[in-house]
Structures are given as C-alpha cells and as structure tokens.
Amino acid sequence: MKSYSPKIPSIALLFLVLTNSLPGFAQEFSWRRISNGTEIPDNAVAGGRDSDGTPLFVARGSQEGNWHPGKTRKDWNTVSIEYGSKELNLSNYEILIADGPLSWEPARQGFIPENSIKGGEENGNILVVCRCQFEGSLQIGKTWAGLNSCNIGYGGVGRSLERYEVLVATPRLPQQWIPVSMGANLPDNALVGGQDSDGSPLFVARGNNEGIWHPGKTRRDWSSANIEYGGKELVLPQYEALVDDGHYSWKKPTNGFVPGQAVVAGQEGTNALCICRCQYSGSVQLGKTWNGHAACNIGYGGKGFEIPDYEVLVHFGR
What we know:
elongated; five-stranded antiparallel β-sheet; 1 helix; 2 domains
C-alpha cells in the first residue's frame, strides 16, 4: 500500500490544471452536492459495479478540507474513499455529472492521460478519478501522476491496484444522420457495421418507433431500418443512416458499461440507446444497448435476441 503522497513536478501539475480548464471540457462536467443516493441524477457518471452487481457512481468526499475521488451507490448516504490505507465513508460528498462524452483510458507506470478528470488536490498532487477490477467488481478510486496505482477503499481497507484506468473528458465531434427512403438512396459514405447471413453489408441505421429513435440496421436492398423492440424485430419505414466521417471504431464494453465515446442514437426513458454489434447465426448483426444492460439487442428473423458478447460503436474526437 502506497500511503504517502509524493510531490509531482510543477510542470505536470500545471498541465493537469490547464487541461481541466480547456473550453469544451470543463463546461461539460461538474460536481454536485448530494445528501443521499436517492438524489443521484440521471446524468450522474456510473463508472463501476460492486460485488453484488449494484452500479457504482463516480463521487468525491471531503476529508480534512480536501476532496478525494471515490464511489457511491443509490442505496448509500455516503461516499467511500481510500485514505491512510483505510476505507473511509464520508457524509460530505458530491456526485460527478456529465453532459459531454467521458471515457476511461488505461494508465500505466504513473502516467496520467491528457484531460483527466480532476477530483481533488492533496499535498500539491492533483487527484484524478480511476477505476480497477477487484474481486469480481469494478471499483472507483483515486490516483495521481507518478503513483502507478489506483487507490480504492473496499471492505474497510485501503488497497492499491496497479492495473487501472483513468477517467478523461473527450471532445465531441458532430455526427451526421441522413434521412433515407429506400436503400438505393443510402449515401456512398454510409457507415458499414456488419454483414448479413447472405454476405450483404449491413449499414448502421436508426428507426423511429412511436416517436423514439432506436439503433438498428439497414441494407441497400431494403426500404426500412430493422430494430429490436419488445422482444420482436420491427421493420420501420422512417429511418436514417449514419455517415462515416473516419472517426468511428468499435470497442468492447466493461462489465456492461458502454465506453465514454459511445454513439447515442436515441433515448428511451432514462436510457441512452447506443449502437452495438454482435455475431449471430454466421452474421454480424447491428442493434442497441445501454449503460448497465450487458447485452446487444438485435432483431433477426422477425424475433428479438439479447447477445451478451458484443461491441459498441464509438466516435473519437481526436
């Protein structure tokens, strides 16, 4: 356990302060004071999962006048942090909320990625938000430049894990959806995301069902977008195709949590519907997922299916 807080070089300190003050980053996330888990807003950042499967939210607690990143849950009235090699539960805490894209990036050998989210400061060190896997869970804690670990509180004890990720703000690029009336009108640069059972390319699309956009798939020989809804495959004539701007890729989710740059194609209730793909019956199908769902919902052969092994479409701003 690394219980000390070594000083970091002033240049690194200045770099972290500046990157958390850049236009387009600081305005898109903030810390909000709450008194219990029932006050956690819909746009709070869920960054982990506890051993019993309960979502963990990014939070910070005040200890001796300093803010320390940690975790909280909707059934807690405190934040859990690591401090002095122990797990402390603090009643004076704040939750991280975000209106812009955030993502988790691997950190090794004490390196802190650009645009890391600052959660506090202690002894001249900028404390940033990190997470790591521990005993079947995904825990949230704190780290700083040069530490080479993520410090978490778990089971009353402070722990240091050397394999971890750091939360960073990601600049947003505009996404272009083009209304389509038939497959022949698909733009030449429509994004191909899969392949049907007969070898035909499947394009990333979304269809409108009762006023809500749902991610799905289309083909050049179709006049619809096909989506999963209510356990069935729906064929929707009002649909749009996503234009490929060269900034898209596919990433695996972490314990059911979508990557920070995941493309949001619709909203249903409090769930942001993201685009996913998976292998099924000799094909690569396109569908939808959302944070914590841990499956890609696809429509195939008139039925709906939930596939637990999948990838999520992300849009990188760099």
